[in-house]
Amino acid sequence: MPNTEPKPTLHVAVGVILREGDLFIAKRQSDQHLAGLWEFPGGKVEADETVLDALKRELYEELGIDVISAAPLIRQRHEYDIRTVVLDCWLVTEFNGEAHGKEGQPTTWAKIEACASTYPMPEPNVHILKALVEYLDQVQ
């Protein structure tokens, strides 16, 4: 008999950090789901947090930066075998500090056009990248 239990949903705040045409990305650790792929940093939105509060907390904890300016970019839902993930993606254009992998994760600043081809990304991150390119095309 198939499992009809609903999958748990994980709500994640994601930071698309843009600086002088480069994006900050991090490599998923070997003990994480989708290990070895590159992604936009972020983390779980706690029950008592707004998405922006979660974004600020996660980027400070993971990267050591204080977000000054961020705006919603795209919200997407992705179904995995074990859970549903809702990604609230925010474009971060101003922050204090020097972004780095505080949790030991490899990180880099990458050209937008090189992200998906040079740095393999999970499917949801490819969609985020496309949304960013479309947004930048509209504002330029």
From TrEMBL:
Family designation: Belongs to the Nudix hydrolase family.
Positions with a binding annotation for 8-oxo-dGTP: 28, 33, 39-42, 125
Phosphoprotein in keyword set: no
Protein name: 8-oxo-dGTP diphosphatase
InterPro entries for the chain: Mutator_MutT, MutT-like, MutY_C, Nudix_hydrolase, NUDIX_hydrolase-like_dom_sf, NUDIX_hydrolase_CS, NUDIX_hydrolase_dom
Needed cofactors: Mg(2+)
Residues annotated for Mg(2+) binding in this entry: 42, 62
